[in-house]
Design a protein that fits this description.
Blueprint lengths: L13 E4 L5 H13 L4 E2 L10 H11 L2 E6 L1 H5 L3 H10 L4 E5 L7 H7 L3 E4 L6 H9 L67 H17 L4 E8 L3 E8 L5 H6 L1 H8 L5 E3 L8 E6 L8 H5 L2 H4 L6 E7 L4 E5 L6 E4 L6 H15 L5 E6 L23 H25 L4 H7 L9 E6 L2 H22 L5 E7 L9 H6 L2 E4 L5 H8 L12 E5 L7 E5 L4 H14 L8 H5 L6 H18 L4 H8 L3 H13 L10
Parallel strand pairs: 1-2, 1-3, 3-4, 4-5, 12-15, 12-16, 13-14, 14-15
Antiparallel strand pairs: 6-7, 7-9, 8-9, 10-11, 10-18, 16-17, 17-18
Helix pairs in contact: 2-4, 7-9, 13-14, 13-15, 13-20, 20-21, 21-22
Length: about 625
């Protein structure tokens, strides 16, 4: 088979690793990659010698994507382990192509457990295999300009190509269309650029590993270090233990490990999902800031297929975490003040603004503090004005319950089961139904003011609103049984735990310990629905200036968006009939309990401001629900 020349430029390229005994298979794959427009480097024309390992290491470090052709011959090669270690430690996007079913040795199972794999021998049609290969995560960063990246003809041709005679033309198989790329609704330049990744302090990491092995040997616990995973905030040491070692023995020496390594606390992942190994997570000497722009620009976010994709952060190996809020379908987060909850809420809002239009998603924001989310008051995505009073938030929840039941009635008329089926059944002239996301910044204020009403509405929405396209995102600082009740925990399955002060708060939110050992500053445990164990992650950092620039951009470019002033959102006369009656019924109860109705009574009983209480009094007088106070 004719050999192709490897790429030698400075642009992003694929490092292709293979055993020379698989020369024909490797050159075939390399040829298809280059014909599709990808830049590929491989060790062609290099004489194996004393500098061969240095050349390979330099190209692995300089590449943007690592691809290995897995086979028994490759596993037996002397450079296999070094190449995989280089790629793993540098956190490169990578893919492993298996030519045949091979049995991996124990030392390699952990190294490859987090790497994407494509098994070529399972594809009967080679075109289907190459279509899968061209859709591998991150591979498009090495694509030449003007190419589609899916094996089709380049979109731009610099030189005219002579037409092939008709008798030599061949019918090409239909290419598999790649995943649709998200078209961002605001310029990425509005967000702050990612912080450059600093080099790892290898001497410090090696010193910590030696301390850990000495401590385990001191307690007579035999272990073997299988690998090290470098995250944004922690380093995970992957260890294997014999069957005679009890898990309780390891749990008992967690504090001893933290003291020996001179860190705040360590957390054990027992076992690492998909393996028999145990991970010991140790805080890093220097933390890496993960900017929202970095995650939004990732391949995982750009080609996300969910109805409501949200960029949360990166996991312990540096891979972006993109969740689909529509599948969760509700989310609860908690932790101490300053641990990262507000930043996570901003990440959720900006992610939805980036990829979904006001016709696709509507936002409802509950901000009891009155200052955290006010920058978004001019967004065209808002279904109503930003609500600050706890009683009004409860009213909005009750309004959502009515909206949910109305949607189910419309589903019955269409003969569909959920919002996706309804939108698919709508004709060209019918208006499609948007999804609704209600974000409540502080749950404790609701539970303090109107606990029974708020809990009943939240539980009913959490139980029934998934098919209707209504989703809740709730955050709180107070992780007590009075605020986060058993009913809420049972109906909101997806959780995010930031640093908690004690183990009791961690168990209330996650039903297990672990959040009390987090470091803060966005360090979190992400427990999606039906996940076997929480996932350690580093949340995105969103500066306030980024939020203001994005909000100002949508305010200046809103196409017919509704603007909500303070008077419009708080005047009961301009609210819906059901909402007005709900608020006025509370005022009647307050009047009955107090004996007389006055502006100051409403302020005390319902925690209203003076302006709102005075307007409510005037509305009740207009409806003949009360008489004016006697006076001159």
């Amino acid at each position: 088979m004719q050999k192709v020349q490897p790429y030698t430029g400075n642009e992003p390229y694929i490092f292709f690793s293979y055993a020379h005994r698989n020369n024909d298979a490797a050159l075939q794959i390399i040829g298809r990659l280059m014909n599709a427009g990808y830049r590929v480097w491989y060790d062609e024309g290099i004489d194996p010698g004393t500098e061969f390992a240095e050349i390979i290491a330099a190209h692995v470090k300089g590449c943007s994507y690592f691809m290995a052709l897995m086979s028994p011959a490759y596993l037996d090669s002397e450079y296999c382990k070094d190449e995989l270690d280089y790629a793993r430690n540098l956190n490169k996007p990578r893919v492993l192509v298996y030519l045949q079913d091979v049995t991996l040795p124990d030392w390699m199972q952990m190294r490859l457990s987090r790497i994407q794999a494509i098994h070529k021998y399972t594809y009967q049609d080679e075109n289907a295999f190459y279509a899968k290969l061209f859709q591998a995560q991150g591979i498009r960063t090495c694509l030449k300009e003007g190419y589609a990246g899916d094996g089709t003809v380049p979109a731009v041709k610099k030189k005219p190509v002579a037409r092939v005679p008709e008798r030599m033309e061949m019918v090409q198989p239909k290419a598999v269309s790649p995943a649709k790329r998200i078209e961002g609704l605001f310029p990425m330049a509005l967000l702050k650029e990612p912080v450059p990744v600093t080099a790892l302090d290898e001497s410090y990491e090696n010193e910590q590993a030696e301390k850990l092995k000495k401590l385990l040997s001191y307690f007579k616990i035999p272990s073997q270090l299988q690998g090290v995973v470098h995250g944004a905030s922690v380093t995970q040491y992957v260890l294997s233990f014999g069957p005679e070692v009890k898990v309780s023995e390891l749990k008992a020496i967690e504090d001893n490990i933290a003291r020996a390594l001179d860190v705040f606390a360590v957390r054990m992942e027992i076992p690492i999902p998909g393996t028999k190994y145990i991970g010991i997570e140790v805080p890093r000497k220097t933390l890496r800031t993960v900017m929202l722009r970095e995650v939004l620009q990732s391949e995982e976010m750009q080609y996300a297929k969910g109805a409501l994709p949200v960029a949360l952060g990166v996991d312990i190996s540096g891979r972006p975490i993109i969740c689909d809020l529509a599948r969760m379908p509700h989310l609860m987060m908690g932790g101490v003040a300053g641990a990262g909850k507000s930043l996570c809420i901003h990440s959720i809002i900006l992610s939805l603004l980036y990829c979904r239009t006001p016709r696709e998603v509507q936002l409802m924001l509950g901000d009891p503090t009155g200052v955290e989310l006010q920058m978004y008051k001019a967004l065209p995505h808002l279904r109503c004005g930003i609500v600050s009073e706890p009683v009004e938030i409860c009213a909005r929840l009750s309004e959502l319950v009515s909206e949910m039941m109305e949607r189910y009635t419309r589903f019955q008329e269409k003969g569909v089961r959920n919002i996706d089926g309804y939108n698919a059944a709508c004709g060209d002239t019918e208006e499609k139904m948007p999804r609704i996301v209600f974000i409540i910044d502080e749950l404790s204020e609701l539970m303090r003011t109107c606990k029974n009403e708020a809990e009943e509405a939240i539980c009913r929405l959490a139980q029934l609103s998934r098919a209707a396209g209504i989703h809740l995102v709730i955050a709180t600082n107070w992780l007590t049984a009075g605020v986060v009740s058993g009913m809420l925990r049972a109906n909101i399955p997806s959780r995010i735990a930031f640093r908690c002060p004690t183990i009791q708060e961690s168990r209330i939110l996650l039903d297990k310990s672990g959040a009390e050992k987090l470091m803060g500053y966005g360090d979190m445990l992400y427990a999606p629905f039906a996940a076997p164990s929480p996932l350690r992650a580093q949340g995105c950092f969103v500066p306030e200036e980024d939020c203001q620039r994005v909000a100002a951009y949508f305010s200046a470019n809103a196409d017919g968006g509704v603007q909500f002033s303070d008077d419009q959102k708080t005047n009961p006369a301009e609210m819906g009939d059901e909402l007005r009656e709900w608020i006025l019924s509370i005022a009647e109860v307050a009047a009955a309990n107090g004996g007389a109705l006055s502006t100051s009574l409403l302020q005390r009983k319902l925690a209203f401001g003076y302006g709102k209480a005075a307007r409510l009094m005037e509305e009740m007088e207009r409806l003949d629900m009360g008489s004016p106070a006697d006076g001159p």
